């Protein structure tokens, strides 16, 4: 076989191989691009959720009169992770002002903002449609980040159950109940508020840890 014939056969084989592998390579590039976009979308969705949870938790603790200096400082620290959001920056600046008060003044400030007895809150359920729909992108995260995302989703389900219980007990407060039973129902409502706030804080801290990690596959 001549050298010229060998070269032609080599080129033919190379062309055949490229034709065979071309669609696979293009598909891999497309999939990698979609996964990158999916990871970015999930991260942004969680960032938005993080802000909503902080606002909701602050409202609950202010409503119940359980807010204190340490709690307010925690809210500010969490919101400081969103310095690119002008609205959040303004809210954060407003929250910082009471910290200049003495402990006694701050306690009076929080007491004055506590809701009167009998006033209820409307707890919200939060969804993560991008996280739920981007299954392919989810599995492109590192294993520990996959676990974190699934745990966040699981705690959101717990919060949804708390919302349902809070609504049930809130509706009971409008029923004709004996005094002791009414007080018990009110306690259950407040317990739901406290549990909701606790789970929301838990998710907020999980989102912060997730956002700080390098979003790479492997």
Class from helix and strand fractions: mainly alpha
Distance between the termini: 47 Å
The radius of gyration over CA amounts to: 27 Å
Runs in which pLDDT lies below 50 for 5 or more consecutive residues are: 214-218
Largest sheet: none
Under CATH, the topology of the domain at 18-65 and 114-212 can be stated as Four Helix Bundle (Hemerythrin (Met), subunit A)
CATH class of the domain at 18-65 and 114-212: Mainly Alpha
Helix content: over 70%
How many β-strand runs? Answer: 0
Write the layout of secondary structure elements.
Elements: H1 3-64, H2 69-79, H3 86-96, H4 103-113, H5 129-133, H6 135-138, H7 143-172, H8 179-212
Can you put this structure into words, describing what you see?
The protein has 218 residues and is mostly helical. It has a domain at 18-65 and 114-212: Four Helix Bundle (Hemerythrin (Met), subunit A), CATH 1.20.120. It contains 8 helices and no strands. The protein has helices at residues 3-64, 69-79, 86-96, 103-113, 129-133, 135-138, 143-172, 179-212. The protein is flat, with a radius of gyration of 27 Å. The two termini are 47 Å apart.
């Amino acid at each position: 076989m001549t050298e010229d014939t060998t070269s032609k056969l080599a080129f033919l084989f190379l062309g055949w191989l490229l034709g065979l592998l071309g669609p696979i390579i293009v598909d891999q590039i497309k999939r990698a691009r979609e996964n990158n976009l999916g990871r970015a979308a999930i991260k942004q969705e969680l960032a938005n959720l993080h802000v909503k949870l902080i606002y909701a938790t602050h409202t609950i603790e202010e409503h119940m009169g359980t807010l204190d200096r340490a709690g307010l400082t925690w809210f500010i620290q969490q919101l400081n992770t969103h310095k690119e959001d002008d609205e959040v920056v303004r809210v954060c600046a407003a929250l910082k002002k009471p910290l200049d008060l003495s402990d006694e003044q701050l306690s009076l400030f929080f007491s004055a903002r506590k809701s009167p007895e009998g006033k209820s809150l409307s707890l919200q359920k939060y969804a993560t449609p991008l996280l739920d729909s981007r299954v392919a992108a989810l599995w492109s995260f590192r294993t520990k980040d996959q676990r974190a995302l699934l745990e966040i989703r699981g705690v959101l389900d717990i919060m949804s159950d708390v919302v349902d219980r809070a609504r049930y007990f809130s509706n009971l407060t409008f029923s004709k109940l004996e005094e002791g039973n009414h007080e018990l129902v009110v306690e259950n409502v407040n317990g739901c508020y406290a549990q909701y706030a606790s789970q929301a804080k838990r998710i907020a801290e999980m989102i912060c840890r997730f956002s700080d990690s390098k979003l790479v596959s492997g």
